[in-house]
Structures are given as C-alpha cells and as structure tokens.
Amino acid sequence: MESQELKARIFTPASFYRHLKIFVASFSEFRKSRKNGNVSKSFSEKIMLAVTQVNGCRYCNYVHTKNAVDAGTSVDEIKMLLNGELGELDNDESVALMFAQHYADTNGKPDKETYTTFVEHYGEQKAVDILAMIKVIMVANIHGISLDAFLSRFKGKQMKGSKLKNELGIALGVLVLLPTAIIKVWFEKRVKNSINENRNKMKTIKNMSIIVLATSLLLGGGTSFAQNLGKTNKKNKTDYNVISRLDVSPRPAGFTPVKATPKSGAYIESVVTTSNRVLNSETIMLKKASVQPIGEKGNSPWEFLCDEGGHTYEQSALNPLSYMVGGISSSLLTRVEQAIKIMNLDVVSAKVEAKVFYRYDDPFTPKWIGYTDKVVANILIKSDEPTEKIAEVKRMAVQAWAVGECLMNETPVEAKYTYNTNIWDAESASSGKVIGSESYDNGLKITSKVEKPKPESFELGTDVSMEKFTNPFKFEVVSISESANDKQRPYLHKITIKAIQENYATWNVYADDSRGYKGIDKAPTSTDYFTSGTTLCLMSQLTGSSEVFKHKGIEINDYRAEHQFNYQVDNYMTPSATGHVDSVTTRILVKSNTSEKVMSDFASLALRMCFAGEAVTGATTTEIGVYQNGNLIK
C-alpha cells in the first residue's frame, strides 16, 4: 500500500509472540502502575503516543490522542509527540518519552546504557511502572497494525511489505498465542522463583513444571466464574454455590461419628466433616467439604466450596484458612455476646477482629513444614458500662471459648490413614465449578465478595505476592465478626474475611450460633467454619503432596480428609462457663496402586505441611485484647 496514512512497521507472529510473553510477564506491574499514582494519566497517554509514533498504529494513535486530550494534554504537546519532537516537552517526562521511542525502535531490546540512565533518572519503582506501560502499548500497536492491514486488504489497499500470513497470524492468532504465552510465562516464573534445592535435579521442563505447580497449588490455583444459578448437575458436571444447605449429613468412611457424652451442666458440640476434590480444567485446588454438628436439633448439614487465589487469577470461593479464621472470630463473638447477656449489660454493639499469622519453612525440602505462628483476637465493645465490667466480659468470654482453648493449648489428635477402601466406588472426585460469589439461602445472601475489611484495632497488611515464593513464606488472614442484628437468631453473625495475599478476595459470610432458639438455622455455626477450614487446609496440602509424589513418578489417584472435633463448654451460660476441646479425630483416605508405605509418606507430608493442623496440635501464641469505645483496656 502506497498511502502515507497506512504506513507502519511490519511485525511477524514470532515477534508478536515475544512481545506477548513480555507483556504477560509484566502484567502485575502494569496493574500496580495504574493504582499507585507514580505515573499520571496525562503522562501515561504521552508514553503510549511516543511508542505509537514509532510503530505507526492508526488505531492506537486515535485512541490515545483522544485519551491524552481528555487527560489535559495540550494540542501542541500532542503534535510534537506525533512528530517525534520531544526536545521542547517537560524535561522530567522527556527522558521517559525518549526511552519509550528507543524501546520501540529497538523492538523491545534497549541498550544497557540507555536503560541504566532511564532507571537512574526515575528510580527503580517508577521506572518499572513506565516500562510496564511501554510493554503494553507495544503489544497493542503490533496487533492494531496487523488488524488494520488485514481489514484494509479487503478494501484494495495492501500495506507495503505486509504479508497476509503475518496479518492473520497476529490479528487472529492472538486467540492462540495469548493463552500459550500465559502458560509459558506461568511455568517460567515458577521455575525461576520457586525451585530451590530441586532445581539441579530436574531433567526436563515437564518435571520442573510439576514441582513449580505445587507452589501455586498450596496457596493459589483458583478460577472465577460468573452467574449464580444454584447447584445443578449437567452431564456429570456440577455447578456449585460457595456455601449451600444440604439434605444429607456428612458420612465419614474412616470413622463412625459418635456424639461425645456431656457431663452435668456441659454443652458439647461434636462437629463432623468430610471432603472431596472437585475436578476442574482451570485448577486442581477446587474442593468441597460437608459439615454438621451431629445430634444437634436445628443444625443443618452444609457444603463449603473452597478455592485459592494466585498471581494471575482471583479465587472463586474462600480458601481454607479464611474459613478457619472466620470461625475463630465468630466463635469468640458468641462467647462475648453470651457473657454480656449473663451480666445483663447495656451494650450498643460488640464485635471481634482477628488476625492470624501463618508460615511455611523450607518448602520443597525434606524439612518442609507449616506453622500457625500467632493469633491476635481483639474484642471491641461500645458501652457506657464501668470498665471493670467490660474487662469481666473478656475474662468470661475467653474462659468459655472452646475454639480458643483448642488453639492456645496442645490438643490430642488421633490421626490415622486408610488405604484403597470401597468408599472410592461412590465417593471419588467429580467434575464441577463454582458459578458465582453470591450464595443465597431462604432469602439471605450468605456469601459475597466485598471491599477490603477496615479493622479498627490493628493495621491491614500489604497483600503478599503470589509470584515470589520465599523461604520462609509468611502471610496473614484477617476476619471481623459482628452481629447481624437478627431478633429471631440473636447469635447470627456477619463475618468479613480476607487472606492478605495477591488476588485473594474479601468475603462476607454468615455464621449462626443461635443454639436453642426456635426456627431453622440461617447459616453454618462458627465451629462449622473452624472445623471445615481445618479439613480443607489438609486437603490443600494433600493436593500439593500429590504433585510432589507425581514428580517422583508415583501416582496418587484420589484422597480425602475427614474430621470430628468435640467442642465442650462446662457450666454453659453461667459466669463459670469453661470451654475446651479434649479430642480431635483426623482421617486421611488414599487411593493409589503404590505401597502402603508410600501412601503413608504421602499423607504424613501433607499433615506436616498443614497450618491449621499445627494450630490445633501445638500451643499457639494467642493475644487477646478488649477495647471499650475505642480505648484499649489494660
């Protein structure tokens, strides 16, 4: 094509694919650059136009010229940018604009000296932000030029030097090249950041990918889906809500559930869970748990779906430790509200804010282990009652808090493994997906994604990157529980939960501890959440352990975790109420053609890695504060 307006640089699909990989690898930096304010909207559009001036994309020229005008860039500045005349522009911005043109001129291969000058001028973080924008517009330019050339060809205007196969390979090939680039970058980054001692032992990229996958599996492997259509089965593929009420109680295969016998004046809640994998082409971290306090009138069985987040995707359901920490804050709030009722105090509101600190040590080594380092739980009360009475509320609540006693003291756990039982004929993993973040039960929206929590008693930390897996790897989960103010169910709580990790959502869920009140339960109990969180955490570690064993050439065909926790409160609903957990039953069921010794090693690795299990078996450091009208009571 001879016309001036269609003159542009010509690219090949191979060059486009290279820039796609660069774009995918820096996408997280681009997202952060749009939020951190280092680069203004006007400056950003000038950068886009500087690159576009070199490459000659008409579509990008039009879009970013309009955006630049809307952002307040003068017409004279735009004219100079489009003509490549940068000398009269703002000196601070001109360094970036000249570098952007240099980057485009060299097809994304700037010389070291120019790059060093660029970084020294802006500093590392701002330079990363600018470079991320340059990488994005390079991809947009290349695709826009090829699409323009392809469409113009049908109008009888062939772009000079452009070939049809290249136009098709870029304009339409992006549908294949982009997913390929994402997968390629995914594995390359995991190899670079996560392989430590195992790296030299890898013989093929496939083996490296398996080990690296385990990194993302343990804390990130989710996918998100849209609409909420209810739980249905379509050709053996089930659509799940995040939380739903079940018709059938959990049926453990590794033990027979038996409700513990309460002593005089004691209240015992024996909570049973079972779990299964949910097969999904997008993630191997999707799983489900069914849970119910056995022998308790008015407590329904519930099903929890569980997913994780990661570097490039947001979770479709709560992760295991969010369920667990939600149970921690809600169960303490129940004891606080009961103490207030026992003391007959005039209280405007009460809530509990919890933060739990987790850690991996020595991942991908024989010493790999998971820890719960600390639990912080703060009680926030608004009331004009004497300070001494508010302090007494804390004392009574903590004394009656069975979940807290389980955390603060070593709890006896009976853990056993069962191999290749008949359960797999009926209870093996099946295909499915989560259909939306919102779940409803009897008109109540019991799950939804919301804005980040805003705790009053501690700072919310920065999301931990899921791209770089450090040793040790540390992160936090935060939960805020407050009354739902339901007159029929006085211990119905709204819980706001977030794992402080990249692409982990903030969730609202509900818990109902209104034992003994008329009517059906409106949500799972707080101990349902704590118990299920423990079970699902173990399932995550079993998934990771299975990938490690797969790398060794050992196939673990299926697995599940089951639990029974016996929560007891002596002298229930009295000032001397005392909570404790005297026993926990843990079962891991494994299906595999390998030896029982290998299956035992597989299950033992998962148990050792399980944060939640360590919180139960160990004596976890726990700090509990009480605030009255915003002031800490010492």
Automatic annotation (TrEMBL):
Transmembrane segments: 130-150, 170-187, 208-226
Domain Carboxymuconolactone decarboxylase-like: 27-82
Key words of the record: Membrane, Oxidoreductase, Peroxidase, Transmembrane, Transmembrane helix
A GO term, aspect molecular function: peroxiredoxin activity
PANTHER family (alphabetical): 4-CARBOXYMUCONOLACTONE DECARBOXYLASE FAMILY PROTEIN (AFU_ORTHOLOGUE AFUA_6G11590), CYTOPLASMIC PROTEIN
NCBIfam families cross-referenced by the UniProt entry: ahpD_dom
Protein name according to UniProt: Alkylhydroperoxidase AhpD family core domain-containing protein
Lineage, opening ranks: Bacteria, Pseudomonadati, Bacteroidota, Flavobacteriia, Flavobacteriales
